[in-house]
C-alpha cells in the first residue's frame, strides 16, 4: 500500500504490546511463515478472488494475459537449459505481483474481521491480524483465542492451497507465563522469548535494547564489507562517497529505531555506532585515525548518529500524527498519548529538547514548514554538541577550528579537490582545520594536553617539541639546518617551524630573501624529507590519542 512501510507494522505491534503490558493485560502472538507463498499461489484462485473484490475489465484481462502460457529457463554458461511451464505463483520482481498477491491475505483479514477476533485497544480499535506481504502475525488476549485464530488460518491456507511452515513459525506471550501449547496443522508451534519480525527484534521483556544491539552488530558487518570496497574507489568524488556511506552504513544502524517504544539505546551503543561512523568518514576524507569524529561530521555536512536517531523519531511521529482520521496509525497515536506510553514520552522529550511545537493536526503546508524547522533545530543542536565535545576533549586546534568562518565551509568546496595524492589531501586538511600545521596533521590532529613524549618525557609532545627540541631528531634537525644555510645566510630567518610546517607561506618571503623559485622548491624538498623522517614512528602517528 502507498506510504506504508515495515516501520508502520513494527510500530503497530510494539504499541499493542506496550499498551496491554502497561494495563497489566497478557498478549499472545503467533508469527506464521508461508512456505514459498509468492511461488505457490494458484493463479486461477487469484484471478477469481480479484474479480470477487471488484477488479474487472481491462485490468483483469491484462493480468490474466501476463500469467497465461508462461515459460522459464535457467541460463548456465550462457546456454539456456530445459524450458519449464510456469502454472502457479506470481512473477518474482514484477511490478503487479505484490499488489496482486495481497488479494489472497486480504481474504484472511476479511474472515477474521467478520468474527471479531483480536485484542481491543479502544472503542474503535480491534486488531487480531497484521499482514505484510507473506508475513502473518496473529494477536490475541489468551491462548484459547489464539488457537481459534490458528484454525481460521488453517482453513484459509487450505482454501488457497498455501502451506504453513511450522518449523519457522513461533509463538510469544507477553506479560504472562506461556503455559500450554498452540498447534497449527496438528504441529506444536515453538515458544520463543525473542523473535525477529520484519528485521525488528521483539523481546519477551518488552525492551527494545536487543534491537539496538542487533543494529550495532549489523552496522559492524556492513562497515567491514563496504569500507574496503569504498577505499579502493579512487576515482569517485567525495560527495558520492558520502552518499554511499549514508546509504550502506547509516541506514543499517537506523532501521526501525523510530518505532521503538522506549529509548533503551545506551551511551555505550551510541559511542560504538559513532566509532563505526567515524571509520567510514575517515575513508571518505582519507584522514588519519586520530582525527576527531566531530570534525569529520562538520567537514562533510553530516549529522551524528545521536542526531539522526532523534530526527528519524520526530519525522515518524509527524507522519503518523497526521495520518488519515480513523486510520489504525492515527488511533495508535491517540492511544500512545492517552496511555502515556514510552514512545509518546520519548517523542515529547525530543520536542522539548529541540524547542519544537507539537506536530499533530497540521496541514500539508504547515507540516512541510515544521519539518524544515525541525531539521534546522536538530542540525544546530548537533553542531553545538560537536563544538562542545571538541572543547572538552581537544586542546590545540579547537579555537582555530571554531574561528574558521564560523564553520560555514560547504561540501562543494571539498568535492572540487577530490584528492588523489598527498598534496591534495593536505589541501583538504588545510580547509578542514584552518590550521597551518597541515603537513604534519597526520599525527598532531587534535592532540590533548596530556600527550607526553615517550622519548624524553617532555610534558607536551606537540609539533613544536618534535621539530625544535626533541633530542631524538637532533641529527635530522642539524642536517636540515645545514641544508638551509646554503640558501640563507642569516640565522635570524632560520625558523624551523616556518620552514617545516608553513613552507607554503615561506614562499612569500622569497622576495625579501632574494630566493629563486628553484631554491624555494629545494627548501621544501628538504623540509618534506625531515617530515618523512620524524613521522616514520608508528607511535608518533598515534599522538592524537590521550596519553596520560
From TrEMBL:
SUPFAM superfamilies: DNA/RNA polymerases (SSF56672). PANTHER family: REVERSE TRANSCRIPTASE DOMAIN-CONTAINING PROTEIN (PTHR47027), REVERSE TRANSCRIPTASE-LIKE PROTEIN WITH RNA-DIRECTED DNA POLYMERASE DOMAIN (PTHR47027:SF20). Residues 1-202 form the Reverse transcriptase domain. PROSITE patterns: RT_POL. It holds the Pfam family RVT_1. InterPro entries: DNA/RNA_pol_sf, Rev_trsase/Diguanyl_cyclase, RT_dom. This is Reverse transcriptase domain-containing protein. The lineage of its organism: Eukaryota, Sar, Alveolata, Ciliophora, Postciliodesmatophora.
Amino acid at each position: 500500500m502507498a506510504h506504508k512501510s515495515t516501520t508502520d507494522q513494527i510500530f503497530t505491534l510494539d504499541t499493542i504490546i506496550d499498551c496491554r503490558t502497561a494495563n497489566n493485560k497478557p498478549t499472545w502472538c503467533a508469527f506464521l511463515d508461508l512456505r514459498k507463498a509468492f511461488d505457490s499461489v494458484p493463479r486461477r484462485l487469484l484471478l477469481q478472488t480479484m474479480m470477487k473484490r471488484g477488479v474487472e475489465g481491462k485490468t483483469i484481462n491484462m493480468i490474466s494475459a501476463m500469467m497465461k502460457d508462461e515459460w522459464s529457463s535457467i541460463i548456465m554458461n550462457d546456454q539456456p537449459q530445459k524450458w519449464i511451464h510456469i502454472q502457479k505463483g506470481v512473477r518474482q520482481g514484477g511490478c503487479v505481483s505484490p499488489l496482486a498477491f495481497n488479494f489472497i491475505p486480504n481474504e484472511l483479514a476479511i474472515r477474521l474481521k467478520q468474527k471479531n477476533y483480536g485484542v481491543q485497544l479502544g472503542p474503535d480499535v480491534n486488531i487480531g491480524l497484521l499482514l505484510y506481504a507473506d508475513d502473518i502475525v496473529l494477536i490475541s488476549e489468551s491462548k484459547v483465542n489464539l488457537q481459534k485464530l490458528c484454525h481460521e488460518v488453517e482453513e484459509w491456507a487450505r482454501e488457497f492451497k498455501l502451506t504453513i511452515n511450522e518449523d519457522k513459525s513461533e509463538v510469544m506471550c507477553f506479560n504472562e507465563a506461556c503455559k500450554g501449547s498452540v498447534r497449527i496443522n496438528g504441529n506444536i508451534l515453538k515458544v520463543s522469548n525473542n523473535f525477529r519480525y520484519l528485521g525488528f527484534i521483539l523481546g519477551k521483556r518488552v525492551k527494545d535494547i536487543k534491537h539496538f544491539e542487533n543494529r550495532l552488530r549489523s552496522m559492524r558487518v556492513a562497515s567491514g564489507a563496504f569500507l574496503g570496497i569504498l577505499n579502493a574507489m579512487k576515482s569517485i568524488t567525495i560527495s558520492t562517497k558520502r552518499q554511499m556511506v549514508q546509504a550502506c552504513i547509516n541506514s543499517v544502524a537506523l532501521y526501525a529505531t523510530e518505532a521503538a517504544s522506549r529509548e533503551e539505546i545506551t551511551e555505550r551503543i551510541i559511542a560504538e555506532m559513532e566509532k563505526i561512523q567515524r571509520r567510514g568518514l575517515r575513508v571518505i576524507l582519507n584522514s588519519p585515525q586520530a582525527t576527531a569524529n566531530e570534525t569529520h561530521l562538520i567537514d562533510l555536512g553530516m549529522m551524528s548518529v545521536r542526531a539522526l536517531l532523534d530526527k528519524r523519531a520526530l519525522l515518524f511521529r509527524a507522519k503518523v500524527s497526521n495520518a488519515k482520521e480513523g486510520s489504525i496509525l492515527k488511533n495508535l497515536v491517540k492511544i500512545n498519548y492517552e496511555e502515556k506510553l514510552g514512545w509518546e514520552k520519548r517523542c515529547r522529550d525530543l520536542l522539548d529538547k529541540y524547542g519544537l511545537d507539537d506536530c499533530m493536526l497540521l496541514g500539508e503546508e504547515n507540516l512541510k514548514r515544521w519539518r524544515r524547522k525541525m531539521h534546522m533545530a536538530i542540525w544546530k543542536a548537533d553542531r553545538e554538541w560537536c563544538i562542545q565535545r571538541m572543547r572538552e576533549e581537544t586542546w590545540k586546534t579547537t579555537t582555530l577550528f571554531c574561528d574558521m568562518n564560523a564553520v560555514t565551509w560547504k561540501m562543494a568546496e571539498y568535492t572540487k579537490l577530490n584528492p588523489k595524492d598527498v598534496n591534495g589531501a593536505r589541501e583538504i586538511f588545510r580547509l578542514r582545520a584552518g590550521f597551518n600545521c597541515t603537513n604534519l596533521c597526520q599525527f598532531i590532529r587534535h592532540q590533548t594536553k596530556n600527550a607526553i613524549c615517550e622519548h624524553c618525557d617532555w610534558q607536551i609532545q606537540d609539533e613544536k617539541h618534535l621539530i625544535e627540541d626533541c633530542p631524538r631528531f637532533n641529527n635530522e634537525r642539524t642536517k636540515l639546518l645545514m641544508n638551509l644555510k646554503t640558501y640563507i645566510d642569516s640565522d635570524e630567518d632560520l625558523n624551523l617551524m616556518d620552514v617545516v610546517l608553513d613552507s607554503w607561506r615561506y614562499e612569500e618571503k622569497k622576495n625579501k630573501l632574494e630566493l629563486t623559485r628553484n631554491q624555494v622548491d629545494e627548501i621544501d624538498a628538504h623540509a618534506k624529507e625531515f617530515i618523512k623522517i620524524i613521522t616514520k614512528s608508528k607511535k608518533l602517528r598515534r599522538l592524537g590519542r590521550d596519553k596520560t
